[in-house]
Structure formats: structure tokens, C-alpha cells
Amino acid sequence: MASSNTNETVESHRQGSEKLVNHFAKARANRPARKYQEFKKKYGGALHNQEATFRVVSNGFNSCCKSVILHVDLTSYLFNCGDGILRHMLENAGKWSKLEHILITSKSWRNVAGTLELNGTMAETGNRETPLCIHGPESVDCLVNVDRSVRSFARDVMGIVERHSPEQLYIDNAVTIQSILLFDCKKPTDQTAAACAYKIAFKGEKRKVNTENLVKLCVKPGPWLRDIVEHNKTVEVGGKTITPDDVLCRPGHTDVALVLECPTLNHLPDLIRKTEQLSRRNDNGEFVDILVHLTPDSVAKHPEYLEWMSQFPETTKHLMVSESVPSVGLKYAWEQQVHLNMVDDSIFPLLHPKPVEEPSVEANESTNILYLKPNSIYTLRPLSYKGLNNSQVHKGTKEAAYGYFKSMELVEQAVKDRVSLTCQVTKREYPILTMLGSSASVNTKTRNVSGILVEIEKDSYILLDCGYGVAGQLVRLYGEEKSSDILRNLKAIFVSHGHADHHAGILGLMGKRKEALGDRVAPKLFFIFPRKLNLWYDHLNQQFPGCMENVRAVFGGFLLKDNIPPKKLQEHSQSVHLSRLLLPP
């Protein structure tokens, strides 16, 4: 009897588990990514190329990299993936669940620091079934394609990443992508120092049946017509050989775009030398139609670069993504801070860029050089919408941030009349804590993951945890000048535990610190982190030499022991392979 009850209980649990599994499978099947996969199986990856748009994800202002995303029907291609990119994509990337390709223009900390965040988040949330493909120079996949023992903090759900070599032509049902390497003149054979330009040829739209030609052939329409229209086949009908050109309209003009970054002046000679290869289409030798510039402003404004641009005809549109154009990259966070600032402007200061009285003048599309901001959209197809669309670009004014409020005068008066919920601090005392992020696990539109800045005394700072996008949070809160000063005076970074949302922003932060230091000698910076992250930081220092300059590493467990002699501490460091990080004397 007891055995029978046990079997019934086991069977009941099994049925319950199956029901739960089926429930989650059904829920996951309704996700946008799954729907796109079903469409791709049906249509072969493209809906006859009806849509093709470039959309600016980030223009490089406020720390993030210059990044654009290309939407072509059922597939998206992201160019560059910097630290904190996920928050920008949530606002400015449209349907990024279609993302299958990341194309890196140069292997710098600014362009690749977000690959780990994006890959892990997309895999964990079920937004991808197919492997993510990374294109670019050698080792651009260094943060995601590493040994499990090195990336010991990552979860098992990390998605599979494939790397496409720039020597190979990439072809799918929507585009053909040719990668062209631009070498540093001081390192002419080093692929890791090279930049990569991408020439993108879009597949032609579906050719329609020309009824006049069909009548002239004196053949009756039938199933053979589908083979010609859908599969571009030559068929035999009534003893006649009919080719696609016999019954279909002539193919229309297909656009070719070039996405380019010339990261330094050392890459300019090779850029000029490969002008013919970069500027011309592969099919008919004409100039490319669209040129997307991700080049830093310091290079883009150089006379030689401007002279190189002048070689293109007026029919070529230059889409300039410039970091010197102030823009509201994270609209929701910026607007939320404007609302909170009305309650207490000392606790909730306005984010950078500060609100302006009048929006900036929109780009004039009558010229062939257009300056784009986050959420600027340039449409290639459909032809009826071809051109620049800035309707979704935030104006950066307080009125735009107030949004749904009908009368701001009444709201401001109500805020003034309210009893303040915050205590009035008459004297500013140290330490001063600034919350840079409070989100759990992943970034959201209005909240960043973990990071707390502690000002222990004047011009002396420590950082508690450094998740994705913390460097960008510093710039948004303090501005470029003050944030650089903070990074130069940073004394220590403490990582509480090994989850990526507490430490994976280190590369972006250290790269920004190196940029802020310039030619100055790097001051001593203490790293305090769990022992299991040692191989990961050693790997970072291998791939991005110089970012970890004058860093002194201390494992958190050592702090729990009293009076450890320096020599013993040195022995511990050697035993865990911290060969590139120095320990405090």
C-alpha cells in the first residue's frame, strides 16, 4: 500500500514538472526572438529586403563608444559594443532581439568592453537561439571566447560566440559584407592594432513580374512562375527555355554602404592608400551610396581626412557620428532626474548634458554631410521613407522632459509648498556616498547595476563595486571634466563578489582612467577583489596592456588576516598567477 502511494506521488510530481516545463516552453515561444527565428526559417532570412535602416545607438558623448545598428528585415548588425551598451540599446536600438552580428571597427577597450554584458544578457533572457557572430580584427572576441577557468564568474548560460575572420567575405540572405583592414603605420603587420572598415552591399528587392513580357512569350502562367520569382531559376515551359530576365522587371538600384573608423592618425596613410578599394562598389565601380563615419573627432577634423572625404561625389551621403555633439543618450534616466531634481536639487542634480532653453538646429539634408545624434534614423528602404529622420531624437529641453505634465507652473508650486522629505544638511561632511547604480543583475532604462562612489576626503575617492556602465554613470553625473578628476584621484576599487554585474565594468573604467591621466604618471591604485577573479584580471591586462598601469592587487580574504608580512603576501600573489599586477610593499 505504501509503495502504491509512493508511485502515485512520483507520478503526480512528474506530471506537474512536465506541465511546468510546457508552460515555460509556451511562454518562451511567444518571445519576439522566437518569432523572428520562425520567420527566418520560412523566408530564408530576408523578407525580400523590404527594410534597411541605420540607427545611432550612441554617438560617443558621455563615455560610451560610437555605435550604430543596421536593421535589415529579420536580422540586425551592431557596429561596436562599448561598456554600458545595453542601456543605450534598450532606448535607441529598436528591435534589438533580432541582433545576430557584432562588427567591431577596432580592438580598443572603448569598442569591445560591452561584448560580455550583451552576450550574457541576451543568452540569459532567452533572446537568442543562434550563435552571436563577432566580426573584426584579431582577438576582438577576447572577452567572450575565453577559457571557462579564466571566466570563472560567468554563468553557464553564456551564449556561444563565433568569430568571423576579416579575410573572408560574409554573405547571408540580406547583405554581403566585405571587411577591409586598415593598419597602423607603426605596426604594419599587427592585426590587433588594425582598424576594420565594412563595405555592405544590400541584396536587391524582389523582382516583380512584367506582364507585358509574359504576354509576348505566349505561355500560360503556372507553378513554373513561382520557381522564377522565388528561386530565380531557369525553367522549360512548352518547349521554351524561360530565364528570369524574360519575365521579370529589371532589377532596381541596390545601395552599398561603408562603415568606417580611422582610430588614430597612424591609420590615415593606409586609409588613403586603400581609397579605391574603400570608395568603390564591387559590382559596377561606382562610388558607395552611404558612408558612416565612426572616426574620432580629433582625426575626422584633420585636414588629410577632410581631403579624403572630398574625393567622394555629392551623391554619397556622409553620416557623421560625432562625440562633440551634446546629446541625451539615455532619455528615460535623464527625464527621471529632471523630475527628481524638482524635489531636491542637491540630492538629485541634473545629469549631463544640462537642459537647454532651445533645441539645437536640425541637420540640413540638402547637404551630403549629416551629423547624427542617438536615435537618429537613416532609412535606405522603403524608398518612400528614404532619408534622415530625427523625430525620435530627444530635444534636451526641460519642457521635453516634463512630458505628460499639463501645467508645469502648478507642479513646481506644489513641490515648493510640500514639506521637504529630505533633511537639511548645513555642513558637508565626509565620507560622501554617491549611488551610481542599484539595479539587480542587468541594466535597465533608468537604473544601472552596482556601483557606489565614496569621497573619503577632499579629492580622494574609492569605488565599491564596478558593474557594467559605471564609467558612463560618472560622466553623466559629474560631466567630462569633473569625472576625469575623480578617476585621477581614485585610490581603491573594492569588488564585493564575483558576479559580473559587480565587476565587469572595470575595463571601461580603467580605460577611461587611462584617458583621463593622459601623459601624467599613473598614481597607485589598489584593487581589492575575490581570489577567483585573479585569472580574469590577468587576462584583461594581457589583452589591453596599459589599462592596469600601477595597480596594486589585494585579495579580499587577505584583509581578514592580521599582520601578514609583505614577503608572504608576495608569495601568495605568485601562487595565483598574478604576474602582471603588483602587490603593495
Characterization of this structure:
The protein has 19 helices and 23 strands. With 585 residues, it is an alpha/beta fold. It has an eight-stranded mixed sheet with strand order 6-5-4-3-2-1-16-17. The chain has a seven-stranded mixed sheet with strand order 7-8-9-12-13-14-15. Helix 16 (470-488) packs parallel to helix 17 (506-517). The longest helix is centred in the first third of the chain and has 28 residues, at 2-29. The radius of gyration is 28 Å and the shape is globular.
Summarize the structure.
This protein has 585 residues and is α/β, with parallel strands linked by helices. The chain contains 19 helices and 23 strands.
Uncertain stretches of 5 or more adjacent residues? 20-32, 42-46, 572-585
Helix and strand composition category: alpha/beta
Largest sheet: 8 strands, mixed
Head-to-tail CA distance between termini: 72 Å
Oligomer: single chain
Shape: globular
C-alpha Rg, in Å? Answer: 28 Å
Helix content: 25-40%
Strand order of the largest sheet: 6-5-4-3-2-1-16-17
Number of helices: 19
Mean pLDDT over the residues = 78
The fraction of residues in strands falls at: 15-25%
